[in-house]
Design goal:
alpha+beta; Immunoglobulin-like; TIM Barrel; 3 domains; eight-stranded parallel barrel; seven-stranded antiparallel β-sheet; 29% strand; binds alpha-D-glucopyranose
């Protein structure tokens, strides 16, 4: 290898830096044990305890190529938002943030890029994080059956090899490197509503009130039609004559309000945002700004890669949020996505004088062709940024960095949303105690600043199944606070699907219904009672388990543990668990196996090695096993669990537990052994208990019921309770 390579040993990590001047660099955690390594020409051999890894690292054609042998049964997990199974083999993945409207299985890439993966072979896991926001490709056993080949299309990057052997340890270390997930405000766990787009003002208030007559909602989102001609930081005064009064009224109803903000700055003389940002934008060349197309028509984009732009953006966000009293920000189109094909139509039109009608026909044609966007991950071909030209900033336009150097977009595209979210986060942090940002795009580290949702998924049964897989891929990649458009975004989707989607995601951290303009009404007040009831029950169930989700948010924020995760995270030794992506664990205590097929009354459920209790009927199962389960939403509780729920606690089996509770995340210590339940630490208010699988009655307290599965009401918060056998 070349001389500009640096190796640093960190706690369970080896960091290899190639080249200089990365726009986004991360540190290895300090401490021991750290791996031993040897370098022999292009090969680095690493060892820690009984784990070892060999990497070949070469420079070729202005690329860095990292190769590793792929074991025949080796699992390849993570890699962020990928429309793929948990175990990614025989695929070629692109890392290039991409606006992938209506994606399906194996469509690649999607909106967010995380070049971090976890390899698992013989129950031993090793992580690899290749920090480069440039265009990258991972070929996982596709062109060569026995090789993992990662190409960085740049001459610099950082490579972190993270030792396990547990998946959970690797993820924790990865989060020490890139930053722990932000702590959301508690309201962000509630049911949130949105549509493209709610307006006018009176209608927005009516929507909120109609919802409230059915179900509690915690937040309402304003999509792009609130703006004047899609100009950011403006209002359409006809639709919203008194936005401030509207927001105040929504607040009185207990509803938070979050506006969408796109990165587009309309090119319009006299528009203050354009005038201020002209010099802070991405550049076509030395002198001229990069002009492209976005929602407002001709526009330019802030160059978030430098501090000056970040500071300007922060000041605009602060001003906007403070003036109207918003409770969070929704960042969209921040891959950044631009409508390049519209630009071409405009150019053609100037050249050949096309009529509006012809322009509309071409537009439609490109839209139809574009709906087969991206590439299929299992098709062998050379991929380049030009494959995604229709909706991406051109690879060779320029960013001006803080060090005064100009760098082409293709070398740092993927970090664009990271710096936008950072600037937004810093602005909100200055003015509010609680920060909430929802972002569509991102890069490694985005978890410090924003929640991620999975973009424009189709409202189909396949879309629903795929969503679960993507959410699990995200959560194994450090994105704890993730979610999706409940019901799907594009295409109509029927009520059964919308209801199942609400059930399937009942424990998914970010829980927002959102739909495209022409998609079926998913607003609960406009639904047949049969489906309305199912959705209400799903929301009620979520509300019941909200204290558990809140506990998990703290665990994720402080300890780097994913909130939801695939079964292989908790049952790494279980080979079967790597193939299950239609079930998920909520923390380590609850398994949710939603119904994802139309006209079904139940499903087959896989339960890994443990004792499990069916939450609905109290039947006990011994894993590993496949069982047939008939329930609206199959849920199982794992032996040895204590789950805080609304006003109470559910216990199955014996154990000692630490529970984060209340808004401040106080820690209560709870133990249940030999029929004695004790509480110490910072006491948690527990009014009810449900001890599963045992017929018990508490001594000293009057029990309302002591049937299996029924909450026992206590008359005060307890320190110690003894139960009769
Ligand atoms: C994008 C977003 C979608 C939003 C729409 C209009 O497609 O992904 O959520 O509704 O733009 O702003």
């Amino acid at each position: 290898m070349e001389d500009n390579i640096k190796l640093e040993r960190g706690k369970k990590v080896l960091k290899i830096t190639i080249g200089y001047d990365l726009c986004l660099s991360f540190n290895a955690p300090i401490g021991s044990p750290s791996p031993d390594f040897e370098m022999d020409r292009d090969t680095i051999s690493l060892r820690l305890g009984n784990q070892s890894l060999k990497l070949d690292i070469k420079k070729e054609d202005k690329k860095i190529i990292i190769t590793k042998k792929l074991g025949i049964k080796e699992k390849v997990l993570g890699f962020g938002e990928k429309a793929l199974p948990l175990n990614k083999r025989r695929v070629r993945l692109a890392f290039w943030n991409y606006d992938h409207l209506g994606y399906n299985y194996y469509d690649d890439p999607l909106y967010l890029s995380i070049p971090f993966t976890i390899f698992v072979e013989n129950n031993s896991a090793i992580g690899l994080f290749i920090n480069s926001p440039a265009f990258c490709i991972a070929d996982i056993g596709l062109s060569e059956y026995d090789k993992f080949i990662f190409e960085v299309h740049d001459e610099k990057c950082e490579i972190f090899v993270i030792f396990g052997p547990q998946i959970s340890e690797i993820l924790r270390t990865y989060l020490e490197i890139t930053g722990k997930p932000f702590l959301p405000p508690i309201w962000a766990l509630g049911y949130q509503i949105s549509r493209y787009s709610y307006f006018p003002q009176d209608y927005v208030l009516d929507i909120a009130k109609n919802y409230l007559s059915e179900i509690p909602i915690s937040a309402l989102y304003l999509d792009i039609d609130y703006m004047d001609g899609y100009k950011i930081f403006t209002w359409n005064n006809k639709r919203f004559p008194e936005p401030k009064a509207m927001i105040e009224e929504l607040h009185k109803l207990g509803i938070k309000v979050i506006p969408i903000i796109d990165p587009y700055i309309k090119v319009e003389e006299g528009y203050n945002i354009y005038e201020e940002a002209k010099t802070l934008c991405i550049k076509r060349d030395n002198k001229n700004p990069y002009i492209t197309m976005g929602w407002p028509g001709l526009c330019t984009l802030p160059d978030f890669m430098r501090k000056e732009t970040q500071t300007w953006w922060s000041s605009k966000i602060k001003e906007f949020v403070e003036r109207y009293g918003f409770d969070g920000i929704w960042l969209d189109m921040n891959e950044p996505s631009v409508f390049n094909y519209k630009m071409i139509i405009e150019d053609l039109s100037t050249k050949f004088g096309l009529s509006e009608e012809i322009k509309a026909i071409i537009d439609r044609l490109v839209y139809i062709l574009g709906s087969k966007r991206g590439v299929k991950a299992n098709v062998l071909r050379n991929i380049s940024p030009n494959d995604f030209f229709d909706l991406s900033v051109e690879p060779n336009v320029f960013h001006l960095l803080d060090n005064g150097k100009m760098t082409e977009h293709k070398y740092l595209r993927n970090a664009y949303p990271y710096f936008q979210a950072k600037a937004t986060y810093e602005a909100l942090k200055e003015i509010r105690k609680d920060v909430f940002i929802l972002s569509r795009s991102g890069y490694a580290g985005i978890q410090k600043y924003a929640a991620i949702w999975t973009g424009d998924v189709p409202s189909t049964w396949e879309g629903l199944k795929l969503t679960l897989a993507i959410l699990l891929n995200l959560s194994l990649s450090g994105i704890s606070f993730c979610g999706c458009d409940l019901g799907g975004f594009v295409e109509r989707g029927d009520y059964e699907l919308i209801a199942r989607w609400h059930q399937a995601c009942a424990f998914v951290p970010f829980y927002r219904v959102h739909k495209d303009k022409g998609a079926t009404e998913a607003e609960i007040y406009n639904m047949p009672s049969k489906y309305k009831k199912k959705i209400k029950e799903a929301i009620d169930l979520r509300m019941k388990f909200l204290p558990y989700l809140w506990h998990l948010c703290w665990k994720s924020h402080l300890e780097g543990e994913p909130i939801i995760r695939p079964l292989c995270y908790d049952f790494q030794e279980d080979e079967e668990s790597y193939y299950i992506e239609d079930e998920y664990m909520v923390g380590s205590s609850l398994l949710c196996a939603p119904i994802l097929e139309p006209n079904s009354k139940g499903r087959e459920v896989y339960l890994p090695r443990s004792k499990w209790i069916d939450f609905w009927n109290g039947e006990i199962q011994e894993g590993p096993t496949y069982i047939e389960c008939v329930a609206e939403l199959p849920i199982f509780i794992r032996y040895g669990s204590a789950i805080p729920v609304k006003d109470g606690i559910i216990i199955f089996g014996e154990g000692d537990w630490r529970i984060y509770h209340d808004e401040k995340g106080k820690v209560a210590e709870i133990s249940y052994k030999n029929n004695v339940l004790k509480q110490y630490g910072e006491p948690m208010e527990i009014r009810n208990i449900m001890i599963l699988a045992q017929k018990i009655s508490p001594r000293g307290f009057k029990a309302n019921y002591n049937r299996l599965g029924t909450m026992i009401e206590l008359d005060k918060t307890f320190k110690e309770i003894e139960f009769d056998k």
